[in-house]
Amino acid sequence: MTLRAAIVGASGYAGGELLRLLLGHPEAEPVSVISRSQAGQPVATVHAHLARLTDLVFLEALSENDPEPDVVFLAGAHGFAMEAAPPLLDRGIPVVDLSADFRLKDRSSFERHYGTAPPAFARQGEFVYGLPELFRERIRGSRAVASPGCFATAAILAMAPLWKSALVAPEVPVSVFSVTGSSGAGVMPSPTTHHPRRAGAFFAYGLNGHRHLPEIEESLSSVGPPAAGRLVFQTHSAPLVRGIFTTAIVPLTRPVETAELRGLYEDAYGKEFFIRLVDGSPDVGAVRGTNFADVGVAGGGGVARVFTALDNLVKGAAGQAIQAMNIMFGLPETSGLKLTGVFP
Q1: What local confidence, expressed as pLDDT, does residue 206 receive?
Q2: CATH among 2.60.40.3450, 2.60.40.10, 3.40.50.720, 3.100.10.10 for 3-148+315-328
Q3: pLDDT over 90 (residue 17)
Q4: Identified catalytic residue from 150, 168, 313, 337
Q5: What is the pLDDT of residues 64-82, one digit of tens each?
Q6: What percent of the chain shows pLDDT beyond 90?
Q7: Could you tell me if 306 and 159 are in contact, meaning their C-beta atoms sit under 8 angstroms apart?
Q8: Which terminus of the chain is more solvent-facing, meaning fewer CB atoms within 10 Å of its CB: N or C?
Q9: Is domain 150-311 annotated with CATH 3.40.630.30?
């Protein structure tokens, strides 16, 4: 049986990636693509790279008169899923939400970063945080998944094996330096994503805190000691279109050489298809267009340096959401996601 998938918010970058990946999925197909701003337009008018691959036309909304989809991906702006998800779940339709609406468990943390929580926040307990490499068994059989943020994915994958160990020095700040490309800002242009400003520019942003920090703290705390208040997290914009590169500087309780660190990460990720351990530093160019996260480690002295590179629109968004869908429905986890990168 082929899964029927609907994409709400299909005209954005993440929505376009969902459509691209589902068009090549052997056991799922996109049957409805929703975009209020592009309703009535063929998909190829927005996603020219998908011309001749689909005849779908953007719809204004899901119709209750059409056959129900087996799964709905919500790829709209933050706040939209709070309205859209509850009615779908009440109809028994599984949901994978790519926004931040249902990622955080703690209400005070949500309100600190996103404003007053609407009544639908009460449904948060139905959602599983969709990072498969850490929470696969929770995702399996779930009917509602909150897909992680791109920065959060890179940072959590970088630090989780250490956080589970007894090697992280207590009460010492952990520095996390993350860099992203312009596509992470979404399809709507802004002064900082406008090409004349962005091309050739490299700058820090989110100086008063980034919304993905509480995701990182909650996830690490669920696999090890409390992480709240332990992380110094700084994001940067680079002259890239796709890609996230994260460096975590983790103080340790004792000196650890690179070989020992490598062994720790081999134990954690050696059987994970979508995590590739590399010698030295990973490179965002090697993961572009793929669902891989490449991880490198360096020891020596009392500090571990861990590096993660991933594509913010694939492993950081659409690919990871489809990976979660595969797990939810008992499909092979790699189905539709064995994507080759493009080089050079």
Answers
A1: 86
A2: 3.40.50.720
A3: yes
A4: 150
A5: 777 899 999 999 988 899 9
A6: 79
A7: yes
A8: C
A9: no
